[in-house]
Amino acid sequence: MLIIDKDRCIGCGVCEANCAFGGIEVIDGCAVANDRCTLCGSCADVCEPGAITIERGEEAATDLASWQGIAVYVEWRGGRIAPVSFELLGAGRALADERGVALSAILLGHNVADRGAELIAHGADRVVIADDANLAEFTDDAYGNVLYDILLSEKPEALLAGATAIGRSFIPRVATMLATGLTADCTGLAIDPESGALLQTRPAFGGNIMATILCPRTRPQMATVRPNVMQALVADPGRTGTVVAVHPAADRTASRVRVISSERSVRADEVNLHEADVVIAGGRGLGGAEGFAMVRELAELLGGAVAASRAAVDSGWIGYPHQVGQTGKTVSPRIYITCGISGAIQHAVGMRSSDVIIAINKDENAPIFDIATYGVVGDLFEILPGLIGKLKQRKTER
To answer: Does residue 345 sit in helix, strand or coil?
Structure first.
């Protein structure tokens, strides 16, 4: 509860100026909180007269020691395991090894009982499968109920899920049911060496800063993670593990929603960067929309897709579906070529997991060279036409 002492408040407005959410304002010479207040406490920290205080209710104690292990929600979509699930198993394996605990995979769906060995090969020690006809189609309530029951039974200290349409839809529901914290759209995960808590990093304030979030008092710690950020492990058919089948009660798989049919709508301007093996990205260094003509030509010759930095999109040189970075798409192609992109963290976080990164920039001190596999320092308006010419020559010779 936010408490404002009207006798002490001098109406200076410092609290209002420091509130990032617009949750407090000065009215008739006194600070007043509104429904946008998140009880973050920033106003109390800057109030010199001491007119603002925060009173928090006692939270129910959680036996943190009884929650152990890392779990990954495995997304079953379109008759196959979503690629992000394998990426999360790779990340979860590293976290579990650092914590010295087991890694579990939780799979919900229908006709999925035979997928346990595949998940163990990709890093899981234990696979929990709920195979039920009522889970053939995804619905928030049925999937939420079943995952909630499994988490209460398995009691993992952390749960990772993909920040996909499905993950974003029902994972927050499960977190609410468990009365625990959830960090959405993470781009980085680590273990705090002192407390052992999960450090969950995500872009904040429009991608201008990176926030690292902890959930110190409740379990499980829950995070949804952007696809194509983490690296999947190479499957090891020799790995061994345990597969456990759970059988949800009928009332837990019942749903108020009935799926009639599922169709994927494709927009005319949609760009499938996620599945491209080669991505050519242009940035501010291209100088304008006309500069992307070279990028498109190079992408066509290499059978790749065209991407862009936020600066290029904000300048109106190319559409938002091409944007890669914190506020755009995250990609992980075999080859990622940057043309005139400085490589600030806002862009790098969206492509740094690419297998090979080739950077072209005239500034030898550009941050992009810190993460590039190969770097070319020079004028892209000389380098790109030369590269395009060589590729055309090779194509003609073949």
So the answer is: helix
The model's pLDDT over 261-308, given as tens digits with 9 standing for 90+, comes to 877 655 544 567 877 899 999 999 999 999 999 999 999 999 999 999
Tokens standing for residue 289? 């929309």
Burial class (CB in 10 A: 0-12, 13-18, 19+), 299: buried
Cross-strand pairs, 49: none
Name the residue type at position 211: A
At 348, list the tokens: 């790098």
Q: Are strands 278-282 and 221-225 parallel, antiparallel or unpaired?
A: unpaired
CA distances (Å), 194 to each of 140, 190, 198, in order? 36, 12, 11
Residue 50's CB: how many other CB atoms inside 10 A?
A: 10
Of 57, 59, 52, 72, give the one whose Cα is nearest residue 10: 52
Summary mean pLDDT of the chain:
92
- Rounded distance between C-alpha atoms, residue 311 and residue 136, angstroms: 42
327 with 203: CB under 8 angstroms? yes
Peptide bond into 321 cis (omega under 30): no
